[in-house]
Amino acid sequence: MKALPEKYVITIGRSFGSGGRALGRMIADRLGIDFYDKELLVKAAEKAGYDIDYFTKADERVPRIMGGIIPFSLGFYPMSWIGDSPGGTDRVYKAQCDFMHELAEGNPCVIVGRSADYVLRDVPNVVNIFVHAPVEECARRIVDRCESTTLDEARTLAERTNKLRANFYNFYTDKQWGVASSYDLCFDSSRLPLEEIADMVIDYLHRRLAK
User: What per-residue confidence (pLDDT) applies to 63?
Assistant: First the structure.
């Protein structure tokens, strides 16, 4: 099998409870590369000099803008037109973007969420994946990992989290969260075990990127 390039990034968008984070970790472990999810927050916070609790509250949240008069999807680094919101969401996003670009210049890695596919859209050797599943399957997974006690609570949590993620993605990009045309590969994680999906992703990587 031909070797993968020295620099490449796998980004994973995911609906809540679909197993996207677990898939990203699995792929990173198999390839022996770095993995960033909440870890990205910690490193970006440290680099920007912010408290991690401050960053966590603003993670994947849309800035609160007075009157809601500014439309979504105005593109990358909207720092010139977004004011310093009460939660500092814009500053959090810029710090994360800067850090993701630094990561792309270093070792291969997997980045989960944070509109990484859009942030790195002009970077070579980036493969973008989206993972989803039916709401009932997501609810069962959420209960299994002890993030809710009942399926009804899990469904509500999934719907609320997906809305937040979609609003965040649609606000900071000129694309739509979860739409297939925004990604290279899309998977319904209820159709196959994550191990087999990881095999398919790695096979795709070698077919597309290997020299």
Answer: 55
